UniProtKB/TrEMBL annotation:
This is superoxide dismutase. It catalyses: 2 superoxide + 2 H(+) = H2O2 + O2. It is an enzyme of class 1 (oxidoreductase). Residues 300-309 have a biased composition (Acidic residues). Residues 262-309 are annotated as: Disordered.
């Protein structure tokens, strides 16, 4: 009988370092080993991804101590917990995003959802910041912000309000809403909003916009452990500092460009599908007309087969 490969704890992983290029939520497959009892099962293990900067790089706005606890303990705990949960299950071979969506289970959360979503959320949060961040966005991102919110200041005010009014633990997001008005996995929170635009969302606990098929552009973590060591209970001070000093608008712009490209591809594929359906309908109509033109009518006669008397 095949045995299961044992997953090592991520506590042995090294501290983060600048320039790390491992993809968020990446999987590492443990190679099968052959022993007396036969080959071991191949296991897909999620690895803890370090922030794209050193742990003291965000000081004085976010301390090394905060990152040591937030990334080194909380984030690490989600990774270790999910690896234990998916070991030997059908989820072990899926990407992190797929695990999040499948575990959401139309709102009836599976036990793996919280760990999976929190891993994804934290990877995204670390990448939403940079040393010497803040300022203003540029290019297409700024154009859409001004179009959809009236001004950069208007967007920032809405984003801050979402972060401060999220009761308890959760997240505030700037997302690109492409074209999903009917998502089978979840109730769309903004069904009346115009498609192909930027919107602000806030989510409780581990929930993120992936479940609505939205494209996150920016996020701030408002779980208390994200800021308590530096700001105690002053969430407004933390959120203001994040917005003014830590945001990576370069990362946000890159995410928007990717989201728009993905939406354009999906739109083109949908148009091609509709065109193909129209073409098939026209061919079927043409065949029906051709069949009708060739039809001949045969009338029975009483004289058929009778000889003249």
């Amino acid at each position: 009988m095949a045995g299961l490969a044992v997953l090592p704890s991520t506590s042995a992983l090294p501290l983060p370092f600048p320039g790390c290029s491992r993809r968020a939520g990446s999987l590492r497959r443990i190679a099968p080993k052959v022993g007396r009892s036969g080959p071991l099962t191949i296991v897909a293990q999620l690895e803890l991804k370090p922030p794209p900067y050193s742990l003291n790089a965000l000081e004085p706005y976010m301390s090394q101590e905060t990152l040591e606890f937030h990334w080194g303990k909380h984030h690490r705990g989600y990774v270790d917990g999910l690896n234990r949960q998916i070991l030997g299950t059908e989820l072990a071979g899926l990407s992190l995003e797929e695990i999040v969506i499948k575990s959401y289970n139309e709102g009836d959360l599976l036990p793996t959802f919280n760990n999976a979503a929190q891993i994804w959320n934290h990877d995204f949060f670390w990448q939403s910041m940079k040393p010497d961040g803040g300022g203003k966005p540029f290019g297409v991102l700024m154009e859409l912000i001004e179009r959809d919110f009236g001004s950069f200041e208007g967007m920032m005010a809405q984003f801050k309000n979402a972060a401060l009014t999220q009761f308890g633990s959760g997240w505030a997001w700037l997302v690109y809403k492409a074209n999903r008005l009917d998502v089978g996995n979840a109730v769309n929170p903004c069904p009346t909003e115009k498609d192909y635009k930027l919107i602000i969302e806030k989510t409780p606990n581990a929930v993120n916009p992936l479940i609505w098929d939205y494209n996150p552009i920016l996020v701030v973590d408002v779980w208390e452990h994200a800021y308590y060591l530096d700001y105690q209970n002053r969430r407004p001070d933390f959120v203001s500092t994040f917005m003014d000093k830590l945001i990576s608008w370069e990362a946000a712009s890159a995410r928007l460009e990717a989201a728009m490209a993905q939406a354009a591809e999906a739109q083109a594929a949908e148009r091609a599908r509709e065109e193909e359906e129209r073409r098939k309908e026209e061919e079927e109509d043409e065949e029906t007309r051709d069949d009708g033109g060739d039809m001949k009518m045969y009338v029975d006669s009483d004289d058929d087969g009778l000889e003249d008397e």
